[in-house]
Amino acid sequence: MSKIEQSWYKPFSLITLLLLPLSAIFGCVALVRKYCYEVGVFKPFVSNTPVIVVGNISVGGNGKTPFVLWLHDYLTAQGLSVGLISRGYGGQAAHYPLLVTANTTTLEAGDEPVLLFNRLQCPLVVGPNRQQNIEMLNHQFQLDVIISDDGMQHYKMARSIECCIVDSERKFGNGFLMPAGPLRETVSRLNSVDLVIENGSEHEFSYRLQPSIIKRVADNTEITTAIETAHAVSAIGNPQRFEASLKAQGIALLSTHHFRDHYAYTANDFAQFGEDCVLMTEKDAVKCRDFAKPNWYYLPVDAQPTAAVINTLNLLLKEKGIHHGL
Question: In this structure, what CATH number is given to the domain that contains residue 242?
Answer without folding.
Answer: 3.40.50
